[in-house]
Every structure is written in C-alpha cells, then in structure tokens.
C-alpha cells in the first residue's frame, strides 16, 4: 500500500484531459493520444515519486494533506529504485512510440529538477511556477501540436490557457503555506507572503480569463467549464483576502482543494464528451 501511495496515481488523471484538449484543438485523433497519455503519465509518476521522497524530509512533516507518504513510512529503496527505473523506461518508450520522445525527455528533466536537490526548482522564486506550468500543461499540450499543428501560432493561446489553469490550482500551494515556510523553502508564494500571493493569484485569473475570452473572437478553442472554474477561483481569492486569520485562510483553502481537485479529475471525461459531440470521435 505504501508503494501505491508513493505513485500518487490520482494526480495524473488531469494530464489525460490536457492531451485530449490538444486533440480537440488540432481536431485530430489517433493512436498518438494513447501513446502520449501513457508516456506522460509514467513520467509524471516518476516525478511525483521523487517529490514525495524529497519533501518528506522537510515540508511534508508539517503538511495538512494525508496523501503524502511521510517521513516515518517504511520503504524498501530497492523497490523504489526499480519503480523509478521501470516507469522512466516505460514513459520514454511510450513517448517515443507516440512520436514525442524529446518532449518526454524534457518533461522528465524538468519534473525531476522540480524536486531534486540541490536544484530543487520547487524552492526557487518564479522557477517553481514555470516548472509546474511546463510539466502540467505546456509540454503535454504542445508536444502533439509541434508535430501535427502550427506550434508558432499556438504559443500565445497555450500560455494564456496555462496561466488560467495554473491560477486555479495555485491555492493548492497556498494551502501548504505554513508548512513551506517552516521548511525554509523560497517558493514564490513564500517569498511573496500570503497577502501578496492572493493579490497575485486574483489578478492572474482576471488577466488570463480576459485574454482567453478575447481569443474566442479569433476562433480559438473555447471552454465555458474552464472559464467558470477560473471565475470561481477568482471569487475565492477575494474571499480569502478578506479573512483576517491566516489559519482560517488555510483551512478554507484546504476545503477548496477538496472541491477543485475532483473537478480537475473529470476533465478527461469532459473533453471526451466534447469530442463525441463534435464528432471528432464516434461510438
């Protein structure tokens, strides 16, 4: 059970949604969807394994979230090493078969460097955000477009979409604000402080949603579900900003995570329905 927990299997479901979104954007389907989804998920498993193993030495000791394996969890490092090697090989193999090998390599490198010391991008101002956006949205979305579409014409759209989606999950980090401060990390939200982080998150939502709506007039892909989710997060940023107690802020953010995380995990089903409606897929 400890090893299943180490893999954090539920965390990788949104990746499938991002890849299906790329298929919708391209209006193309093929076996590359399955290959790239399997490759990205296997690499993501490796990334989360490293994150769990490193974080349990500091920030996870203070975390509220029970999903983490914890410092006292007994693990056989030979088994951990085998799992690391297995999922790395599978991830790169599936990426290669899908035609996105170098994107898989890039995803693996950035993902590992996000947690691995001494680089540990997670603990570096600004770089933590860039790494998160790259691994969760940018690379999975752009890989198929680089081969099957027009990468240059898609960059602005992808950046705006990535910022909008990231602003929705930024409170995941804020919910662990106290733990990260106690661990001595220099992540963006720690350096900014809680108040400035909330201001940053709110204006990021407003700016990205406004830009996303404007792109609609240029016939770019559109999703009202994602817009409503972002607007909900903007309202929550304001709600948290008005709270005087940081403890109550974090408790509210933890409730937010419990609501939004399951919503993010239905993204693959949302995009599959969309693909059937637009007849991109047929029964």
TrEMBL record:
Xref: InterPro entries: MFS_trans_sf (IPR036259), UbiA_prenyltransferase (IPR000537)
Chief site of localization: membrane
Keyword annotations from UniProtKB, A to Z: Membrane, Transmembrane, Transmembrane helix
Membrane-related topology note: Multi-pass membrane protein
Subcellular location: Membrane
Lineage: superkingdom: Bacteria
Protein name according to UniProt: Ubiquinone biosynthesis protein UbiA
């Amino acid at each position: 059970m400890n090893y299943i927990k180490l893999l954090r299997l539920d965390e990788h479901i949104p990746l499938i949604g991002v890849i299906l979104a790329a298929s919708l954007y391209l209006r193309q389907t093929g076996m590359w969807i399955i290959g790239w989804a399997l490759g990205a998920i296997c690499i993501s498993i490796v990334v989360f394994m490293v994150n769990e193993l490193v974080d349990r030495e500091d920030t996870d000791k203070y975390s509220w979230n029970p999903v983490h394996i914890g410092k006292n969890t007994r693990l056989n490092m030979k088994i951990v090493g085998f799992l690391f090697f297995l999922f790395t090989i599978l991830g790169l193999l599936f990426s290669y078969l899908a035609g996105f090998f170098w994107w898989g390599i890039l995803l693996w490198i950035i993902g590992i460097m996000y947690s691995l010391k001494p680089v540990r991008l997670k603990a570096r101002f600004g770089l933590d955000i860039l790494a998160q956006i790259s691994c969760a949205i940018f690379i999975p979305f752009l890989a198929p477009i680089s081969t099957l579409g027009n990468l240059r014409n898609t960059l602005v759209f992808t950046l705006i979409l990535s910022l909008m989606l990231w602003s929705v999950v930024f409170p995941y980090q804020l919910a662990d604000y106290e733990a990260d401060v106690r661990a001595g990390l220099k992540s963006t939200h720690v350096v900014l402080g809680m108040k400035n982080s909330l201001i940053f998150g709110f204006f990021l939502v407003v700016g990205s949603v406004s830009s996303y709506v404007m792109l609609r007039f240029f016939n770019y892909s559109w999703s009202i579900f994602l817009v409503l989710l972002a607007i909900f997060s903007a309202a929550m940023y304001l709600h948290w900003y008005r709270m005087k107690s940081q403890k109550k802020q974090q408790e509210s953010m933890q409730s937010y995570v419990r609501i939004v995380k399951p919503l993010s995990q239905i993204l693959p089903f949302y995009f599959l329905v969309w693909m059937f409606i637009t007849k991109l897929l047929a029964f």
